[in-house]
């Protein structure tokens, strides 16, 4: 039993992220790696490593000024690794050396990338590597122009690569203290970062399926997973962009001082970034309370399964909504796009949603006790941002006590690997029970 637990996909995924965090914390703790005159404590290094590996973006020290160029390379490598996953990278190295993957290894990879077909796991991994290289490369080229003009050639090229990798992996790390606020009026910057965030948050399985469908020589069938993921993504982004525009249009500290074209590009940016990206071109601390609450909802939902995003995931939210609608209409089956959704999937969605609420509620309670000087709204925003691996903040991160930072680190870790994955590491695998008890109704609601 112990051997099975050690080799379970959930346990390996959880341990791989812990190992990456530990190595990153050691590298970021090296005194020679820090900027001149800056002291980064071990807890600061551990927090930064956790935030990077969990592709969150919450920081307690400024990435652009506290760390040397070496450490910034380390941070970039950590959130690239966190976005892909150690098991995916290990598979790539295994294939590159000509070795074969056994059945158990393929199962573990399928768990990490949320693949549905075990037979196509290796093809999916190869496609993921090519996709990441192409998208991040194109993103860096497009971002080079604005950054080179602002920073010069050497620093500008590094900034372009750093922010392209950060945006695609939904990491939210920026080399500026105010994130990308200085580029709020730059159309190329806004469009490129939005595109990288959306593509990274779609999910590798979805992107590969769409590429296969529109490839003339293959014409793969668009799966139900892809239809639901794309539909909910478009709906959430469009609804969020309009909502941000309406809520902040007259706010003198955010949209009101901007020209109309700038408002029309700032709103979509703020609508996309709560899907666990973490960048911002407007100050969230200056936004209306209604906008902050709406952002919290978006952060809790997150991105698509199998992507670089966090949260309870869009498809979990989709399934919960259509399940509730089916119950209201007294429909026996839950369906979408002329396909019936399995009852087990609905139950799993309910467990994930409920677990997310409970974990955030417990963490918020602890933070409210240990951080009495920080407002409850700021703590709630910080809690959901950490759990959703978003990285947005109302300014409370640097003011957290050591215990509060530990709570946030645990939330980031749980949000990245998934609560279900973490829970599976704590329980032993049992054979399926042959006994099936009789059903009996109970009164609920």
Write the layout of secondary structure elements.
Blueprint lengths: L1 H5 L2 H21 L12 H12 L9 H4 L2 H16 L1 H11 L6 H11 L7 H31 L1 H16 L18 H16 L1 H11 L9 H25 L11 H13 L16 H13 L12 H15 L6 E2 L2 E2 L2 H28 L5 H12 L14 H16 L1 H7 L20
Task: Provide a concise account of the structure shown.
By secondary structure, the chain is mainly α. The protein contains 19 helices and two strands. It has a two-stranded antiparallel sheet.
Written as H for each helix and E for each strand, in order along the chain, the element string is HHHHHHHHHHHHHHHEEHHHH
Quote the distance from N terminus to C terminus: 40 Å
pLDDT averaged residue by residue: 85
The largest pleated sheet is described as: 2 strands, antiparallel
Helix content: 55-70%
% residues in beta strands: under 5%
Put simply, the count of helices is 19
> Going across the major beta sheet, what is the strand order?
1-2
User: What is the molecular shape?
Assistant: globular
Radius of gyration: 22 Å
Give me the count of strands.
2
Low-confidence residue ranges: 1-6
């Amino acid at each position: 039993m112990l051997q099975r637990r050690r080799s379970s996909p959930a346990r390996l995924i959880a341990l791989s992220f812990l190992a990456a965090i530990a190595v990153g914390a050691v590298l970021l703790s090296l005194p020679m790696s820090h900027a001149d005159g800056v002291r980064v404590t071990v807890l600061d290094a551990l927090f930064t490593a956790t935030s990077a590996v969990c592709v969150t973006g919450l920081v307690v020290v400024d990435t652009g000024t506290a760390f040397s160029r070496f450490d910034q390379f380390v941070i970039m490598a950590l959130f690239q690794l966190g976005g892909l996953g150690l098991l995916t990278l290990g598979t790539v190295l295994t294939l590159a050396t000509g070795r074969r993957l056994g059945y158990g290894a393929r199962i573990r990879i399928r768990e990490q990338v949320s693949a549905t077909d075990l037979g196509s796991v290796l093809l999916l991994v190869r496609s993921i590597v090519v996709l990441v290289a192409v998208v991040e490369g194109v993103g860096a080229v497009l971002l080079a122009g604005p950054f080179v003009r602002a920073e010069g050639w050497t620093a500008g090229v590094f900034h372009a690569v750093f922010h392209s990798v950060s945006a695609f992996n939904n990491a939210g790390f920026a080399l500026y203290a105010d994130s990308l606020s200085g580029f709020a009026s730059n159309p190329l910057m806004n469009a490129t970062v939005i595109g990288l965030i959306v593509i990274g948050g779609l999910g590798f399985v979805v992107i590969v399926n769409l590429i296969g469908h529109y490839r003339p020589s293959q014409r793969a069938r668009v799966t139900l997973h892809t239809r639901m993921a794309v539909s909910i993504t478009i709906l959430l982004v469009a609804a969020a962009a309009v909502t941000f525009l309406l809520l902040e249009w007259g706010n003198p500290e955010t949209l009101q001082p901007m020209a109309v074209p700038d408002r029309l590009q700032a709103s979509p940016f703020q609508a996309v970034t709560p899907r666990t990206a973490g960048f911002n071109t407007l100050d969230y601390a200056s936004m209306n309370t209604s906008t902050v609450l709406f952002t919290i909802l978006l952060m809790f939902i997150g991105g698509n399964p199998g992507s670089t995003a966090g949260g309870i995931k869009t498809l979990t939210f989709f399934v919960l909504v259509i399940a509730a609608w089916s119950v209201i209409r007294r429909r026996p089956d839950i369906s979408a796009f002329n396909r019936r959704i399995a009852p087990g999937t609905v139950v799993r969605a309910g467990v994930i949603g409920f677990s997310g609420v409970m974990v955030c509620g417990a963490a918020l309670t602890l933070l409210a006790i240990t951080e009495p000087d920080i407002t409850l709204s700021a703590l709630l925003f910080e809690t959901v941002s950490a759990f959703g691996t978003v990285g947005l903040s109302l300014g409370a991160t640097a003011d957290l006590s050591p215990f509060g930072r530990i709570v946030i680190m645990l939330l980031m870790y749980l949000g990245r690997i998934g609560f279900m994955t973490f829970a599976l590491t704590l329980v032993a695998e049992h054979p399926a029970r042959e006994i099936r008890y009789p059903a009996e109704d109970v009164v609920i609601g």
